[in-house]
Structures are given as structure tokens and as C-alpha cells.
Amino acid sequence: VQLQACGGGLVQAGGSLRLSCAASGRSFSGHIMSWFRQAPGKQRELVAGITSGGNTAYEDSVEGRFTISRDNAKNTVYLQMDSLRTEDTAVYYCASSGSTRVLRSPRLYEYWGQGTEVTVSS
Description:
By secondary structure, the chain is an all-beta fold. The chain has strands spanning 2-6, 9-12, 17-24, 32-38, 45-50, 56-58, 66-71, 76-81, 90-97, 111-112, 116-121. The chain starts with a strand and ends with a strand.
């Protein structure tokens, strides 16, 4: 079972990036798929999550700027990040849980991607 995240990079404040996370080894269509991020010296935090039915949850600071979506046929989850700010700079991780609702604690996720780095410059 593997989650492969990609799409990070360097972008100016106000710009956009789209992250992708492709799952392989099993179907994740019935699982929660979430994006976390971890900035240097900070704890890993939930950015956004999506249930198998398409219900979403967002961290307050990204609400209205980020959009999470999934394509169950492709076993892939996306994070569209618009109006990026310097404080969005972090390593972004995708994760999956067998829960039926989005969980905020990273300890409750069974599968993790390797992380993709996002740097937002001023």
C-alpha cells in the first residue's frame, strides 16, 4: 500500500498550486483522504479532509482558499491551493484513514504519503 504525493514547489504569494496524491496497492474509495502539513518547528496539522461520500472539512486558515477533491476511479485525492500565503509554507502530506469522518489527529491515520514541499515567497 502506497500513497504518492506530488505537485509541490515554489510559488509567489497570491499564486496557486495543485497537489495530487495517488494511492496504490488497494482501493481507498471507502476511506477518508486528508492533507496535513508540517512547517519547521511546528506540529503536523490537518489542512483538509474528504470522506468517501465527498463531505469535506478544512482548517480555518485555508477555508475558502483551498479545495480538496477526490477521484475514486483513479484512487487519487487533490488539493487545489489558491491565494497562497507565506504562512502556507510547509511540507504537505496526504494520509488515509478507515474512519467514516475526517479526523484531525495524525495519529489516527494508517497510511501516509512521503510529503511534498510547498514554499510560498513574499
